[in-house]
Design goal:
Elements lengths: L1 H47 L2 H6 L15 H32 L2 H12 L6 H19 L8 H25 L3 H9 L4 H12 L1 H16 L3 H6 L17 H8 L9 H31 L5
Helix pairs in contact: 1-12, 3-6, 3-9, 5-6, 6-9, 7-8, 9-12, 11-12
C-alpha cells in the first residue's frame, strides 16, 4: 500500500512538472511567434522606408499624399500620455500604498484594497468614454481652449486605471519590510510618517520602482482609452490640451479593414507594432534590473 502511494505521488509529481514545462514552452513559443510575425512583416516596410527616415522624420502621414513615415509624432504622443498617467498613478497609487501599509487597520485594509482593485477590472472602453464625457468637460471648464480630444484627459484616466497596479505592488513591497525595522525606529522616537518615508520607503524602493515601471509599460500599450479620448492626429507637440495619436491608436485606425494587404500602409502596422514591442521590452528589462540591483533581503 505504501509503495503504491509513493508511486502515485511520483506520477503526480512528474505530471505537474511536465505541465509546468509545457506552460513555459507555450509562453516562450508565443513570444517567439510574435517576434517572428512582427519582424518578418516589418522587413518589407524597412526595405522601402529607411531607419533614418523612420526614427528622425517629424511627420507621420502613411494614409495621405505625400506619404511620410517619421514615427516621432507617434512616439511623442505615446510617451506624453504615459507620462501623465504615470504622474497620476504615482501620486495616488503610492499614497494609497502608504495608507494601506502603514496607517490602515486590518479591517479597513480588507475593505479598501478590494475596492481599489475593482478599478483594474473595469473595461478600458468604459474608461475611454469616461474620459471623453466626464473628464474632458471638466478640463474644458478650467481651460476653455482645450479641444474635445486631448492628451491630458486620456492620460489622467489612464493613470486612474493603473493605480491598482502601483498600489498593490508597492503595498506588497512595503508589507515585506520586517516589523522589527519599524519598531527600532519607533524606539528612537520617530513618528509614523518618518518611519514610512525614511525606513519603509527606502527598504521597499526596488519593489516600488518596479511597480512604477511596469505600470508605465501598461500605459504605453493601452489602446481603447487613447483611441477614444486622445484623438487621431499625429502631432509633435508638448501641449497636453491638443489632440495626439499614440502607436496603439494608429494600429487600431489602420487595422479596420480598409487598408489593402501588402501595401506600405499595411506594413507600417507591423513596423510600429515592432517598435511598441521593443519599447515595452526595454521597460520590463529596466524593471527587472532595478529589482535585482536594489532588492534587499530581510531575515
Amino acid at each position: 500500500m505504501q509503495k503504491r502511494n509513493i508511486k502515485r505521488r511520483k506520477t503526480e509529481e512528474i505530471f505537474v512538472v511536465n505541465l509546468l514545462k509545457l506552460s513555459g514552452l507555450v509562453s516562450i513559443g508565443t513570444t517567439i511567434g510574435i517576434i517572428f510575425i512582427l519582424g518578418s512583416q516589418s522587413i518589407p516596410f524597412f526595405g522601402t522606408v529607411s531607419l533614418k527616415e523612420f526614427f528622425t522624420g517629424l511627420n507621420w502621414t502613411p494614409l495621405f499624399v505625400p506619404q511620410e513615415f517619421g514615427v516621432m509624432p507617434l512616439i511623442n504622443g505615446t510617451f506624453m500620455v504615459a507620462i501623465i498617467a504615470a504622474l497620476v498613478a504615482l501620486i495616488f497609487g503610492l499614497g494609497s500604498a502608504f495608507f494601506l501599509s502603514e496607517y490602515a487597520s486590518r479591517k479597513v485594509r480588507s475593505y479598501v484594497k478590494p475596492l481599489l482593485e475593482i478599478l483594474a477590472g473595469i473595461p478600458t472602453v468604459v474608461y475611454g468614454y469616461f474620459a471623453l464625457t466626464f473628464v474632458t468637460p471638466i478640463i474644458q471648464y478650467i481651460a476653455p481652449e482645450t479641444i474635445i480630444f486631448n492628451a491630458l484627459s486620456a492620460g489622467i484616466v489612464m493613470g486612474i486605471m493603473i493605480i491598482p497596479m502601483v498600489s498593490t505592488l508597492s503595498e506588497d513591497a512595503m508589507s515585506a519590510v520586517p516589523r522589527s525595522l519599524r519598531e527600532a525606529a519607533y524606539s528612537l522616537g520617530a513618528k509614523k510618517y518618518q518611519v514610512a518615508l525614511r525606513i519603509v520607503f527606502p527598504s521597499a524602493i526596488s519593489g516600488i520602482v518596479a511597480s512604477f515601471i511596469l505600470s508605465i509599460s501598461r500605459a504605453i500599450g493601452e489602446t481603447m482609452i487613447v483611441s477614444l479620448a486622445a484623438g487621431g492626429k499625429p502631432a509633435l507637440t508638448l501641449n497636453p490640451l491638443e489632440a495626439i495619436q499614440t502607436i496603439t491608436a494608429y494600429i487600431v485606425t489602420v487595422s479596420q479593414g480598409e487598408t489593402p494587404q501588402g501595401s506600405i500602409e499595411y506594413q507600417s502596422i507591423f513596423a510600429v507594432g515592432l517598435l511598441l514591442f521593443v519599447l515595452t521590452l526595454i521597460m520590463n528589462l529596466i524593471g527587472r534590473w532595478v529589482v535585482y540591483k536594489y532588492a534587499q533581503e530581510f531575515e
